[in-house]
Specification:
Elements (H helix, E strand, L loop, with lengths): L36 E6 L7 E7 L5 E6 L7 E6 L2 E4 L6 E8 L5 E7 L5 E6 L2 E4 L4 E10 L5 E13 L2 E14 L2 E4 L8 E6 L5 E12 L9 E5 L7 E9 L2 E6 L7 E6 L5 E5 L8 E6 L2 E4 L7 E7 L5 E6 L12 E6 L2 E4 H5 L1 H6 L2 E10 L5 E7 L4 E9 L20 E5 L6 E8 L5 E7 L6 E6 L2 E4 L7 E7 L5 E6 L6 E6 L2 E5 L7 E6 L5 E6 L16 E6 L6 E2 L8 E6 L5 E9 L4 H4 L11 E11 L2 E6 L7 E6 L5 E6 L6 E7 L2 E4 L7 E7 L5 E6 L12 E6 L2 E4 H5 L1 H6 L2 E10 L5 E7 L4 E8 L6
Length: about 775
């Protein structure tokens, strides 16, 4: 069986369709990822210390504040990879980190005793004050992946008080972008605050509005309220608001009440916050979507508040009874709202786990990322506030999954971007991360050499490879770490890790060639490598039995994930939790398998290969996931953080191949777009799958009628139809051939054909439908 094709993109399924002996035995050790539970981590390090966590980014970095027992000052911190770091400490200064984006930029606030707070941006080891809108202070609450920061700042406006000109000081919402702070409100005599901004720049918070109320009474007029922004002689109320074009837009309140606040917004434009419900209730958490505000209820008390929402529409916050006399709440518990139900995080974590981590209660959840990690503040056994981190764990629990992915509707439209420069070139995009950074390869027409690239914020960067060397970037994680493969003509292929501007070689398992396919946010890299050194002489082995799946971790040697002699395997994907999938050969004794009861994977002399099957790798064991309809071959090409697996499998003896989605122990055929072949290459946490579909191979080594697809909500759709012919032509493309990557924002990358017939890398970005 051929091994390591020279850069046709990620290792092609065609390489596993060589003639093999079909298996007559069912899959052994079919490995469905177990249900989800939480690992609980306390982020404080010193005895008697207090701390609170305010935000978490896509890579699991956490920010907040801590305070020593011997002082009353707060200290902003960053928690990353098990280590807590204080941010730019200054004597006599209190500071608090509020939010962190995927690039590690941190927004927060600092204050000297007796002074007003000042918003800051912390990046590259330096803390920068953001200034104010003319007043004495500012506060930052959120930062998006573009580095845009929102908050509130005191403003100074010229006004008129009792007929006399005067300066009026009001806190108003601001946006800090490109080194400048601008007012998002600007209404005289009103206050506002911006509390959240998504990656497309949608900003939400709260603003004072003037409301004309009609009260039901003897006149028979029904009770109603009509908001007015900037109208004189009407009472002011604070309502949840969005901000755009220098104006605050009222989102209303539950039950027509007088107070609400929007505290978080996700990429789908869903907004979470808190609102009064009636004069007898302190407030309820809400979810605002499609122009409607939904009451999320409580955990049996009178109050709830939503603080954060991820792109799976999972909402985190807290619920409680009445306010207590100390300024807190009675019976306060952190909650997770998912799949239409509010759940107490203390119950989901369990009393034993809480006690083992030194906690009495999880009081409030303040942040949640798209991996389902949750941060906030709890109470320890000594009564101190302590920052916590909850991480969903696939392994080792019988608890039900509480953070199941919510399917996302297919986007209404896409913007199309090509990665090429004006110089005649060909290019292909292989992967995209949470921040929209894209990797792949390009080649100039004047040479036959491929160059690995990074495409970021509209600019393409050639990765630092040697002249005359073929290179290709295959994957990128949320930290910007890039992996790929390179070689010189006539020399072995090797793998690399590109980080912080430096390229590092990844060693093989001892054989000639190796290739890498995926890297997760912990920096773990998976791929395949030749391993049987003793068989290598003047020529390369050409069968896959000389290759094994491997795992590479920072500063270490690669580890063999297989270990079975004489049978081949490759690892193609790894998720956030470290679950690894790919494909492997399984040995079957065709004469004695039924009598002996021998499981797939045992390899005594004379045993034949059953072909390549989709597989998972764990603890040195390879677990067969089977095929579609008893087909001969299959391959798992992607896995998301919910444990769903996508790939391709033959379906019958005629070797028709179909994309599949594997979940809860079952492999589902995703069908085609009316052709005979489909292949799934990637999927995101929402369960959206991308790949391509086609007819028979053509005479040039390609495929006839090849089209990129998106599979969502139980339906496969042609991306060319979703984008539209006009948008394709405007971008200089004829057809989108293959989708190879999709991130949590629904951005898709792959390869298309331009109007001159050349391969060209593309990026599709969902366009939000108009707001109601």
């Amino acid at each position: 069986m051929p091994y390591l094709p020279q850069f046709p993109g990620p290792l092609l399924f065609a390489t596993l369709l060589a003639a093999t002996t079909p298996s007559s035995t069912p899959p052994a050790n079919s490995n469905t990822p177990p249900p989800t539970a939480y690992m609980l981590t306390k982020l404080s390090t010193a005895e008697g210390e207090s701390s609170e966590a305010n935000g978490i980014n896509a890579t699991g970095q956490v920010v907040g504040w801590f305070s020593n027992a011997s002082e009353k000052l707060r200290h902003a911190f960053l928690y990353s990879k098990g280590q807590r770091q204080e941010l730019a400490p200054a004597p006599g200064e209190s500071s608090e980190a509020m939010a962190i984006n995927s690039s590690g930029q941190i927004a927060g606030n600092r204050i000297y005793q007796g002074h007003q707070p000042m918003a800051f941006l912390y990046a590259n080891g330096k803390m920068q004050n953001l200034g104010a809108l003319g007043g004495f202070g500012s506060e930052a609450f959120a930062i998006n992946d573009s580095g845009k920061i929102v908050g509130r700042s005191q403003t100074v406006m010229s006004g008129n008080l009792s007929g006399h000109p005067t300066n009026i000081y009001e806190p108003q919402a601001f946006l800090y972008d490109g080194g400048k702070m601008r007012n998002l409100d600007g209404r005289l005599g009103s206050s506002s605050r911006a509390l959240s901004v998504d990656d497309s720049g949608t900003i939400v918070g709260a603003a004072e509005v003037q409301v004309e109320r009609k009260i039901a009474g003897r006149s028979g007029v029904a009770a109603s309220a009509t908001p007015h922004i900037g109208t004189n002689n009407l009472p002011w109320e604070t309502h949840a608001a969005s901000f755009s074009d220098g104006h605050a837009h009222d989102l209303g309140a539950l039950d027509g009440t007088t107070y609400s606040e929007a505290r978080a917004v996700n990429q789908a434009g869903q907004i979470a916050g808190v609102s009064l419900t009636n004069m007898r209730s302190p407030g309820h958490a809400f979810l605002y979507s499609g122009g409607k505000m939904q009451d999320l209820g409580t955990l049996g008390g009178t109050y709830s508040q939503a603080n954060a929402i991820n792109n799976e529409a999972q909402v985190a916050g807290f619920a409680a009874d009445q306010p207590d006399k100390k300024g807190g709440w009675t019976n306060q518990h952190a909650f997770l709202y998912a799949k239409g139900k509010m759940q107490d995080l203390n119950e989901l974590v369990g009393a034993e786990t809480l006690a083992a981590a030194g906690f009495k209660t999880l009081l409030e959840a303040r942040g949640i990322n798209d991996h389902g990690q949750i941060v906030g503040v709890g109470e320890d056994l000594q009564g101190h506030h302590q920052a916590f981190l909850l991480t969903p764990s696939i392994a080792g629990s019988a608890r039900p999954t509480i953070a199941a992915a919510i399917p996302t509707s297919a986007p209404a439209a896409y913007t199309v971007t090509t990665v090429d420069t004006p110089v005649p070139q060909i290019s292909e995009a292989n992967a995209i991360n949470a921040a929209g950074q894209v990797v792949g390869w390009y080649a100039n027409y004047s040479e036959a050499v491929r160059h690995a690239f990074l495409y970021d914020k509209g600019k393409r960067q050639d990765l630092d490879t040697d002249q005359g060397e073929f290179s290709e970037a295959t994957a990128i994680n949320s930290h910007g770490q890039i992996i790929g493969n390179h070689h010189r003509p006539g020399h072995p292929q090797s793998a690399f890790l590109f980080a912080n501007g430096q390229m590092k070689e990844i060693a093989s398992l001892g054989g000639w060639d190796c290739a890498v396919s995926a890297v997760n946010d912990s920096g773990k890299v998976v791929g395949e490598s030749m391993y049987n050194v003793s068989t290598i002489r003047a020529v390369r082995p050409t069968t896959s039995s000389s290759t094994h799946a491997f795992l590479y971790e920072a500063e270490g040697a690669p580890s063999d994930l297989d270990g079975r002699p004489g049978l081949g395997s490759r690892a193609l994907a790894i998720n956030y939790s470290g679950v690894i999938v790919g494909a492997a050969e399984f040995g079957v004794d065709t004469q004695n398998a039924a009598r002996s009861g021998r499981s797939a994977g045992s390899t005594p002399p004379g045993v034949q290969s059953s072909g390549m099957h989709a597989a998972t790798f764990s603890s040195g064991q390879v677990h067969d996931l089977g095929t579609l309809g008893g087909g001969e071959n299959s391959e798992a090409r992607a896995i998301n953080d919910s444990g769903q697996i996508a790939g391709v499998s033959t379906t019958n003896t005629r070797s028709r191949r179909h994309a599949f989605l594997y979940s809860n122990g079952k492999m589902q055929d995703l069908g085609t777009l009316g052709s005979i072949f489909s292949q799934a290459n990637a999927l995101n946490k929402a369960g959206q799958v991308v790949g391509f579909t086609a007819d028979e191979p053509d005479k040039k080594g390609g495929l006839l009628n090849q089209r990129a697809f998106l599979y969502a909500n139980g339906k496969m759709q042609d991306l060319n139809e979703l984008v539209g012919a006009d948008a394709l032509t405007t971008a200089g493309l004829k057809t989108l051939l293959e989708a190879r990557g999709i991130n949590e924002l629904g951005q898709i990358v792959g390869v298309g054909v331009d109007l001159q017939g050349r391969h060209e890398a593309f990026v599709l970005t969902p366009v939000k439908p108009p707001k109601s």
